[in-house]
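Changelog-adjacent note: as of this version, every example in the card shows the full chain rather than a window. The one below runs 136 residues end to end.
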Amino acid sequence: MDDISTAMQISAAGMRAQSGRIRVVAENIANANSAAEAPGLDPYRRQVPVFSAYVDRALGAELVEMSRVTLDPSQFTLRYDPAHPAANEEGYVALPNVNPLVEMMDLREAQRSYEANLGALDTMRAMAASTLRILE
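Full-length structure tokens:
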């Protein structure tokens, strides 16, 4: 039963990490059109989740976690809109460096990873239930 419990905790850690990734992607999508409020200010900057592995000594297993969120250093997109309150002297407005297509692909990958961990968790749960039925 210890191996099954460990496997369930590994899957749960993967699900937590992917949930955090989904939250970051959702923030990026929600702010994809958030321009700066005034000239000279930066618009929303895309966030990127960073994952790391760590050893849980009590479990004796390596787990994954979303250790931090960094900012994407890529350039902002410029759009010509001289009427916008955040337009610079040339009439350009800096827009977030968020590409909705990339975010949707990242969201699908996170969803699939979450579902894979959920499937493993369900399998482990079924194995534990079968083991208990055999032992009765």
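Structural remarks: Helices lie at 2-30, 100-135.
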